[in-house]
Amino acid sequence: MTRRRLALLAAIAVVLPAAAQDADEAAEKAVRTAAGRAAPSVVMIHTAGGLDAVAGGKDPKGKTIFIGRGTGATTGVVVGADGYVVTSSFNFANKPTDIFVTVPGKEREVATVVGTDFSRMLTLLKIKSTGLPVPAAVPKAEVKIGQTALALGRALDPTPTSAPSVSVGVVSAKNRLYGRAIQSDAKFSPANYGGPLVALDGRVLGVIVPASPQGEGETAGFEWYDSGIGFVIPFEDVLAKLPALKEKKELRRGLLGFNPDPKTGTYAEPPVVAAVQPDSAAARAGLQVGDTIVKADGRPVPHFSALQHLLGPKYEGDAVKLTVKRGDKEIELPPATLLGSSPAYVNAFLGILPIRSATVAGVGVRYVYPNSAAAAAGMKAGDRILFASRDKAQVPVKDRASLATFLSQMAPGTEVGIDVIRKEGSKTVTLKAKLTPVPDFIPEKVPLVGAAPAARANEAFVAAFQDDPFAPKKKDAKKADTGLLERTDAVTGRKHWVYVPDNYDPAVPHGLLVWLHPAGAGGPRDAETMIKSFRPFCESSRTILLGPKAEAAEGWTPSESETVLADVNRVMSEYAIDKARVVAHGLGRGGQMAYYLGFQARDVFRGVAPVGATLGNPPRDNVATQPLSFFVAAGGRDPELKEIEAGKAQLDEKRFPISYRLMKDAGKEYLDGPTFAEFLAWLDAIDRL
């Protein structure tokens, strides 16, 4: 190698690190400059008083995260030169009695709450100072995916005149949270909630908030902090809504008020209306069950997710114009003025238990609830329901599912017509029933079978169907496995057990009870104990018992929900399962998992039965098309009794059907004898109508 070549390589070796160092220094300087431009508008917020702690989601192990009363600083952004500051509502989840704001270069001041944007979870504050610097906003049209973004906060340094803390990331997505937010991978945490996300030119992209696509409330999304998934509300939108927030004090998300048919899916096809909430924006605009929404504000709606993105940015008082397909016609409805809240859906109750092993059309009645609409109308055990009607619009009742769909479209207090055929003859009788809410009444003992009159004798009913969907199922040629079955997943190695009663008949759909064991359990003795307790019920009420096993001795985590559902789906594929009788049941941490599964897999579960378990996250709304009932039990000496009963109150507020039983002398333990008997009766009545 020549001396000249060696000299050249030596020069390159010196130049390359120097160039890299220069680039790093330039990048660092750009970050400092951008943060410095925005810093005068980034304020420090302190709070005092309020609640000691509030629930803030769950940790990776499924345990509720409690957010303690704030003792440190949080962050805000100046939005008005005359003393207006905006911040994340998360900073006030503990309902503080006092709020203080410190603007760089000024003394700490008392702040008052002017208003809250509940759609974006932002709070507007006011202090007396004027002449405050308002940062410039990056227009949403100029925001680019991949551009550098700086998350600024004032919580780490007690000196408000110091430079704010900086976390560097990029804009990773736009139009998130159904069009309300920008996503970034910069580190977000309580240290910078309420602070600005800043571009390299010093302009503000948005205000940092903890948020979740599923959850709502001040603490929604808190469990994602520092995860690389964070959201900011575009600053352009924040400034645009200031006048309304100052005037109205509260801004809420605009709600249309209907439930889509789950069969159409979220992304598969245009949403079909399955239920319309009474006195909602949708009801006032004339939206009807069975309508297919094809356009919103003139834009195509190829699937339900598209409609969610169109409605997501809208507030209470905003309007949306829907175009629907009704029959073979396309109809443009009058503008629907969105509401800020809608009445909780209340399940309408006829008051019967249906015969399950139906081999003829209609719904047989095996039990009539006392003091119910059915009882008041004169319905009797042994009757078979053929038609249901309201306002002269009559629909044939093909089976239990069709009657459930009809009732889900009604509200308590609605008078409906029910055509039945009596078991003693072929004459059809029309009964008038005024529906009620579902009562907290559990029948002590009801017959598991009932008379099945020959409904085919009614020619009008038979004419409503071209094919007979009720022909008896042919039994499998090969006898299904019964008894206790120990299983191991061939791919993951995870274990679960299944108990199938010896009298299993593939021609009869069975209920499925999913047992979620408490922490420290899940072994062979757990399976033996549960099977011994439930065997008589499984045989008499035609129910299969499934026992998944948690990975860790500490118990279940939300991340295991997919594997539990895989176990459920395997059982449902191998055995005849009644989809109206799938229930999640657990003790302690297992009860928490039952809650989680019930709300996360609404298309699978129809009942949740937690024992000694806290609810954790706020419950989702009661949905007409995916009914969910609860049997909640707790011990009077359970150290978490207060939290358990608070969860029950939240379920009541959402108007879910719930039976609550307090075992006065128990701690955190399984059901005592009388409560267990009530639980079995509740299980047998889970498909009530």
TrEMBL record:
EC number(s) reported in the record: 3.4.21.107
Record-linked SUPFAM superfamilies: alpha/beta-Hydrolases (SSF53474), PDZ domain-like (SSF50156), Trypsin-like serine proteases (SSF50494)
Signal peptide limits: 1-20
Superkingdom of origin organism: Bacteria
Residue intervals of the PDZ domain: 244-328
A UniProt-annotated Pfam family: PDZ_2
Keyword Ribosomal protein assigned: no
Family membership: Belongs to the peptidase S1C family.
Name of the featured protein: Putative periplasmic serine endoprotease DegP-like
Organism: Urbifossiella limnaea
Gene name of the encoded protein: mucD_4
